[in-house]
Amino acid sequence: MSGCALLSKSIASLESAIGRSLFDRHAHGVNPTAAADELAADIGDRLDLAEAALATARARSADLAGAVRIVGHADFLSEVIAPLLVPLLQAGMRVRLQTADRDSVVEALIDGTFDLGLSAFPVTDRRLRSELVHSEPVLAVAAPAVAARIMAAADLGTAIAEEPMLAYTIERPLIDEWLEVHHLFRATVSPAMVTPDLRGLRALLMVGFGWSVLPAYLCAAELARGDLVEIPAPVGPSTNAYFMVWSPAVLRQPRIAQARQTLITALRQAAPAR
Question: Rounded to two decimals, what is the model's pTM?
């Protein structure tokens, strides 16, 4: 066997051992990958540490191979999903959470950057699948003084239009849906504050500024303590739906299929926060 062939075979064996490619091959030669740089740094000039470096590389590869990547809205991932991850973590899986808005969730699943998505919006892209997994009450809330001012007014619609509005996006989906369900006019004014993390709205409400519509999981404790007060809904309870979203191809991986089913079951069993 020629020296080049022997070297190629040795590199192939090494790549097989650590489960990662060490070189990007192209017409003009090869370039080392990040994995190769990490392995070289681990080995250094001390060949007696080569086996330890290989073990470290295998561990990295296994860690990545066992990761489940989940993308979704920041507050829902933190407040609802994170506590449900314990069975997956105890089973030895590694979980990677990433926050994103509605459009970014869809993009991340289509391009394969993430495995599973959680969204408060139905997904219509035919390349993806989605399933309703959770419904949560949504409440119009404000600090006690603001809520008292609104509820003392003769007309609810006029009263809330005169207070600063805090919203998830400039399109105000939660607020507009709440207004529509309760037959109140849709104010044309822009929200005083917009943030993709509803916890930011909650923080501003609690210091006495404005009103908003929040899912119950974000304000149940604050309502119980009296830090926030619900603005009574004229018609009755409103809810917001949450969907698990995925690309069919990812379910070929057993760990992703298991993670998906575990989370769907847990979300459906989870009682609404109210």
Answer: 0.71
Helix (H, G, I), strand (E, B) or coil at 118: strand
Q: Can you tell me which residue has the tokens 């009263």?
A: 159
* CATH class for the region spanning 67-128+244-269: alpha beta
Q: Does domain 136-239 have CATH number 3.40.190.10?
A: yes
Closest CA to 20 of 6, 5, 33: 33
Interval 161-217: pLDDT, tens = 899 999 988 888 889 888 888 888 765 678 999 998 999 999 999 999 999 999 999
Read off the tokens for 109. 């699943």
Q: Quote the DSSP letter at residue 254.
A: H
Q: Which of 73, 135, 71, 77 is nearest to 274 (CA)?
A: 135
Q: Token pair of 16, please?
A: 């097989």
Phi-psi group of 199: left, alpha or beta (phi > 0 → left; psi -120 to 50 → alpha; rest → beta): alpha
Which residues have CB under 8 Å from 103's CB, separation 6+?
none
Q: Where are the domains of the chain?
A: 3-64, 67-128+244-269, 136-239
DSSP per-residue codes, 28-92: TEEEE-HHHHHHHHHHTT-GGGHHHHHHHHHHHHHHHHTEEEEEE-HHHIIIIIGGGGHHHHHTT
List Cα–Cα distances, 128 to 70, 117, 207, 254, in angstroms.
15, 10, 41, 18
